Amino acid sequence: MPTKEHVAIYPGSFDPMTYGHLDVVRRGRRLFDRLIVAVGRHPGKTSLFTIEERVDLARTLVGEVVGKEPDAAPVEVVAYAGLTVDIAKEVGATVILRGIRNLSDLQYEVQQAVTNREVAGLETAFVVAGQSFAYTSSSLIKQITAMGSDLGVLAPMCPPLVIERLRKKKRENPDSLRDLLE
Fold first, then answer.
1. 13 catalytic per annotation
2. pLDDT at res. 137
3. pLDDT recorded at residue 174
4. Distance, CA of 5 to CA of 11 (rounded, Å)
5. 21 catalytic per annotation
6. Within-domain flag for 150
7. 42 is catalytic
8. Looking at the domain assignment, is residue 99 inside a domain?
9. For the chain, N or C: smaller number of CB within 10 Å?
10. Domain holding 21: CATH number?
11. What integer pLDDT is reported at residue 29 of this predicted model?
């Protein structure tokens, strides 16, 4: 009897995608047969990038990760709206992959994991962030973008493409960045 493919879904808003997110993708590819990066909307947050922009960024950046390690599991990037458990079932995932940076993340993620298991029968696998990613968050990146003048300081946290797109957003509509901080 053939073994079932182990498919994991890595959901998030990815607004914007960081090196920490890409580290979770890289590590998840070694743990599962297939990985789906699901770009969605966080109901408690206002997005800087549109869903289309976030999917485009994710596909480009994930493509670079896949290109560096072609022997690891394939990755697909999809957009979704609604509940993570619904998109997980739609793509055939049995595991939700999550990155943990600190104890605050752990507390929130364990609550979500228990709910997802009880409601949808989905297990959650956690990978702990490396020390260099422990304090990076998309919210912090957006704050620095809104308030800072030199976005080059984001280089340790974000790929160059993300910084380029943040600079463009800042040039086009700086009010949208300030609105995120209110």
1. no
2. 87
3. 66
4. 19
5. yes
6. no
7. no
8. yes
9. N
10. 3.40.50.620
11. 96
Among 21, 26, 29, 142, the one annotated catalytic: 21
Structure tokens at 32: 């599962």
Distance (Å, rounded) from C-alpha 124 to C-alpha 96? 5
* Predicted local confidence at residue 181, as pLDDT: 65
Which among 6, 41, 89, 101 is annotated as catalytic?
Answer: 101
pTM: 0.92
For residue 170, give the amino acid letter. K
27 falls within a domain: yes
Is residue 14 left, alpha or beta, with left meaning phi > 0 and alpha meaning psi from -120 to 50? left
How many domains does the structure of the chain reveal? 1
- 13, 26, 47, 138: which is the annotated catalytic residue? 138
**Domain annotation covers residue 154:** no
Residue type at 26? R
pLDDT along the chain (182 residues), means of 10: 84 95 95 97 84 97 94 96 93 95 87 93 92 83 89 95 94 74 64
The predicted structure's pLDDT at residue 102: 83
**Residue range of the domain that includes 116:** 7-132
Task: Point out the catalytic residue in the list 30, 42, 45, 168.
Answer: 45
Does residue 45 have an active-site annotation?
A: yes
